[in-house]
Amino acid sequence: MNRFTVTYTQSALDDLANLWLGSHKQQEIADAANEVDRLLAENQHAQGIEMHEGMMQFYVGDFVVQFSIEDADRTVTVWSARLIRR
Q1: What is the spatial distance between Cα 86 and Cα 75, in angstroms, rounded to a whole number?
Q2: Residue (of 83, 86, 59, 80) closest to 14 by Cα position
Q3: How far is CA 14 from CA 19, 27, 31, 49, 71, in A?
Q4: In the 8-state DSSP scheme, what is residue 2?
Q5: What is the DSSP track for 30-69?
Q6: Cβ neighbours of residue 22 under 8 Å, at least 6 residues apart?
Q7: 1 confidence band (pLDDT: 50, 70, 90)
Q8: 20-44 burial, b if ≥16 CB within 10 A, otherwise e?
Q9: Which has the closest alpha carbon to 58: 85, 41, 81?
Q10: Packing angle of the helix pair 10-21, 26-43 (nearest 10 deg)
Q11: If DSSP codes are grouped into helix, strand and coil, which group holds residue 5?
């Protein structure tokens, strides 16, 4: 298995912090973020749907992130994180 490194932009980290601070379900947000990290590190190409030109979107419950994959660098960059109500 080829693990990738998952990184977050400062904007995505800010999104995540704001979600966590503004929620009464902090553990659920932390668990979803950890699951995103695990899945994107282990099997990034099988996760999410392509939105446009290399930008992917991936859902874990009501938690959604947008990310891109850099195969040459073996990195996944998370660009945004948010909660949705589906």
Answers
A1: 29
A2: 80
A3: 9, 17, 17, 23, 25
A4: -
A5: HHHHHHHHHHHHHHGGGSSEEEETTEEEEEETTEEEEEEE
A6: none
A7: low
A8: beeeeeeebbeebbeebeebbbeeb
A9: 81
A10: 150
A11: strand
Residue 30's pLDDT is 92
Rounded CA separation 29/26 (Å): 5
Cα separations (Å) of 33 from 12, 16, 36? 11, 8, 5
**Per residue in 15-74, pLDDT tens?**
999 999 988 889 999 999 999 999 999 999 889 999 998 999 999 988 999 999 999 999
CA separation for the pair 63, 16 (Å, rounded): 10
Write down the pTM of the prediction. Answer: 0.90
Q: Over 90: is that where the pLDDT of 84 sits?
A: no
